[in-house]
Amino acid sequence: MTSPSELPISGNSDVVLIRQQVRTVAVEVGLSLVDQTKIVTAASELARNALVYAGGGRVRIEIVHNNVRAGLRLTVSDDGPGIPDIDQALVDGWTTGNGLGLGLSGSRRLVDEFDLRSVPGEGTLITVTKWAR
Amino acid sequence: MTVPVDAGRRRIEELLEQHEGQVLRRWFEIAGAMSGGHVDRGGAAVPFGEIYQALRRSLGDSHDGSDLRGLLADLSRSRARQGFTPSETANVVFGLKEAVYEIAEADGSPEALRGFVWFSRIVDDHGLFTFETYAAARERIISDQAEQLLELSTPVVKLWEGIVAVPLIGTLDSARTQVVMEKLLQMLVETGSEHAVIDITGVPAVDTQVAQHLLKTVVAARLMGAECVISGIRPQIAHTIVTLGIEFGDIVTKASLADALAHALRQSGVEFVKGRGRRVTVRTEEN
Ligand SMILES: Nc1ncnc2c1ncn2[C@@H]1O[C@H](COP(=O)(O)OP(=O)(O)OP(=O)(O)O)[C@@H](O)[C@H]1O
Ligand SMILES: [Mg+2]
Predict the structure, then answer these.
(1) Distance (Å) from the C-alpha of residue A51 to the closest C-alpha of chain B?
(2) pLDDT above 90: residue B229
(3) Partner B contacted by A91 (CB < 8 A)
(4) Domain extent for A28
(5) How much is the pTM?
(6) Of A55, A104, B266, B282, which has the fewest beta carbons less than 10 angstroms from its beta carbon?
């Protein structure tokens, strides 16, 4: 897979599909088994957040390169209510739902690069990257 | 030239009665050709005669179409089960039009042709009904299968007196984890077990949702007086769980299902005695 693919997030089965797709690309990029599992888990968390808090969204899965190595980048976006206080949302254990409150903060630790932009009333855009070692 | 509808109807009804043998024979042939020459494929014999009689009854003054609808619904269901396509199924019904057209044409009277138009519309209705029941039956089958698969993919097994285990395999979505949790708790009650092993060797990733389901299961089991051991946490899963920040608290975890079983056995007071080598006893029985 060389061209980026964009998958919809509109139901639980989409989250399963995204996990599988991310796993396939992670293998292709050459991520270690641990790193594959980490990026797959991050994809699962971010996709489910989009589903639960924004009623759905989409994820773009792409292979990226810097000077030294290849990596896997996920761009998860939604047109939901947005996150009013990003710092708050990234606190371990903080949840407005009934989760563990670890999805967002945990995902940030699972990846190498984490970028979160959110505009209340417009939506949320999260980009994460995991580099092959 | 206009022919009153009623006259046309009567003529068709007469023809259907007079030429029953011929229509049935032709219908059988046409339906066979329409479904690729496989009317009897998979033993899906169509009760042409019965449907024909029921159709004639429905055309009569009584207008009783319930027998016919019942027969068509049965036909759709059995064909859906046997994997026929919806068109193959509806074509069986549509085939009757062609068979009846042949006798109307041979008759040649304006009444017969007028009547055929009326008849054809009725058959179309029945064909569509068949199509719809087929679709409903198919959906039913698919959802049943999905449920069965769900059940099948989450076997809860009794490992030992008082010890049950559930080996989780594949992707855990919310629905499946829910089923697992319920089955495990139910099995604890049914077998009166005080130990449960949840083995996740076959799970490719544990995210916060799966972890939460696992934690809830363990808490619920505890409320019922049973202790859970989670086994088969592979290195990559362990890394991910720790990085996410999930804490399993005082839940006992073991590397393998075998270790978990040994732990549960010890907890329930079963003692192991290490055998001193192998002993093979050969005994000959004499009568
Ligand atoms: N895409 C989003 N749109 C709007 N709000 C969001 C979005 N993603 C996260 N949030 C907010 O951030 C909070 C923290 O998210 P996080 O994923 O860390 O925890 P959680 O989803 O509540 O629980 P879990 O540990 O099961 O993921 C959420 O409760 C929610 O209020
Ligand atoms: Mg979350």
Answers:
(1) 13
(2) yes
(3) no
(4) 5-131
(5) 0.66
(6) B282
